[in-house]
Amino acid sequence: MAYLTAVTAAAIAVLLPLAAVAPHLDWPRIGLLALLHLCLESLAQGARTPCARVWRWLRGRPAPDGPADPRGSGFFPVLFAGVLMLPPAAAALVALPGALLGPAAPPRALRRIWNAAQLALAAAASAEVFRLLGGSRLLLGTRFPDAAFGALAAILTFCLANGLLVAGMVRLTCGAAGPGAMRKLRRAAPAALLHGAGGLMVAVLWQGPYGAFAAVLGLLPLTITAWLSAQGHRERSAHRATVQALVQAVEIKDAYTRGHSERVGRASVLIARQLGLAEDRIRTLHFAGTLHDVGKLAVATELLRRNGPLTCAERRAVEVHPVFGHELVRQLDFLGEGRDGILHHHERMDGRGYPHGLTGDRIPEFARIISVADAFDSMTSTRSYRRGRPVQEAVTELERCAGSQFDPVMVRALVDAVAEHGWQPEPPPPGGWDGEVPDIPLGVPEPARLPQQSGQGLPAGGAT
């Protein structure tokens, strides 16, 4: 709270010079920039502001039921244009309506005050840098490269000031999460530079013969791009919510594997990154790995929670869960090739897997990845009928079965990824599992074909 108070006080101090220079300011320009910043940012993010409500009314669409997503990225070209065209205090003022009326997570009032204060300080600092470099005069002349240099310096100042202020708040509120937040800020730098270029374009057009009209027209493609990006963000959020709902349903039914789905998704991503897969495929693989056992929803709960061995008939009833899973996600188009990963994640390289007995490269790549991730987490997780194996022991077992059960390439990728990034197995619940049987070796199964079995099998919760 002390940090928030200090930043807010600094922002108020920055705005104080407005009282002395008010008669000399171009208030119509300031007001129009503030309104554009508020409206265009709300349209890009889908925020529930007055401008967004008017926009939805014009399109004949109802307002969303839930609150706007507070994680959407800002839309700053108009704010940067104010930085380039206005004195520092006036540039800070442009940021206030959009921050005070924009989306914010609870506690909304404090977060909006924080957003307004830090944006006002960053805008004022970058406007001062631009003024010291003579940028306001250069915008009106022919020395455009020099103006671009001043604008670049102003944009970098804005990013630095904003990043330092946010990093300070993250350090105070999140502690160890600070470094992760700083990495996110660094990844946001290219977008900030793009928005800055848009702000320079708006400023140049505004100073031209057609004034604000040309500047607003120039903003249209940037606004459409930002809106499409926000739509994609909301779509990905909806996909994550769908996956999470299905996973929670599985874990309610099969309590002993709680957390297993997320860890398989995470291990699948480790393998995929080690293999150099494209980011869009990695995102799909993460969903598929997380949903690999969704077909257990169609398996009798008694079989999933059985601590003892299964008969041949019961084992066959469990082994159809990949088929059920594939049917459940058939209509989820965003899963793409991940649906085949769910269907075939229990196939074996030697053809002794299920449901279709595929061999070698006929097994889809996603399925070969998920198979290794699934077995690895199963071996390192504590279940009701045995304790988890140490990571190194599980790695040794995977390497032993590489080529017969698992794709050696995927095993090697997991081994290298775990060596580089580490792995934290699931800790047992306090007091252990009820009825836990100590030190029953899990192993990676090398089952005989079903006709040769004598009514015994692995426990349903094993790496089957």
Protein topology:
Layout: H1 2-15, H2 18-21, H3 27-45, H4 50-59, H5 77-85, H6 88-101, H7 108-132, H8 135-138, H9 144-174, H10 178-187, H11 189-206, H12 211-253, H13 260-275, H14 279-290, H15 301-304, H16 312-319, H17 321-328, H18 338-343, H19 365-380, H20 391-400, H21 408-421
Transmembrane segments: 75-101, 113-135, 147-167, 188-206
GO molecular function, one term: hydrolase activity
Protein name: Metal-dependent phosphohydrolase
Structure, described:
The protein has 464 residues and is mainly alpha-helical. It folds into 2 domains: 2-235, no CATH class; 254-452, Hypothetical protein af1432 (Orthogonal Bundle). The chain has helices spanning 2-15, 18-21, 27-45, 50-59, 77-85, 88-101, 108-132, 135-138, 144-174, 178-187, 189-206, 211-253, 260-275, 279-290, 301-304, 312-319, 321-328, 338-343, 365-380, 391-400, 408-421. Helix 5 crosses helix 11 (189-206). This is Metal-dependent phosphohydrolase. The chain crosses the membrane at residues 75-101, 113-135, 147-167, 188-206.
